[in-house]
Design brief:
Elements (H helix, E strand, L loop, with lengths): L4 H10 L9 H19 L30 H5 L5 E2 L2 E2 L7
Antiparallel strand pairs: 1-2
Length: 95
Amino acid sequence: MSIDTETAARVAKLARIRVEEDDLPALAQEFSKILDFIEQLGEVDVEGVEPMVSVTPMQLKRRSDEVTEGGMPDRILSNAPDAREGFFAVPKVVE
């Protein structure tokens, strides 16, 4: 697929990217290359291929889902600029 400089200028405008007039032919050529590659990908037969998350089969690391007390509120609140009654104190934003 071939993209002309007018279309490249329109895409740049929609993307709110300022492109100098001299750079438009090169941008149009890059867009054309990208669209050609996408067309090539559409020709690949993926029938029966399962979707994958990674190129190597792997199991995501998981931790056990256990409810705990945390056990360290004093350590956590020691970093707060303002803490009151065991909570972070923040400025009021809604009147």
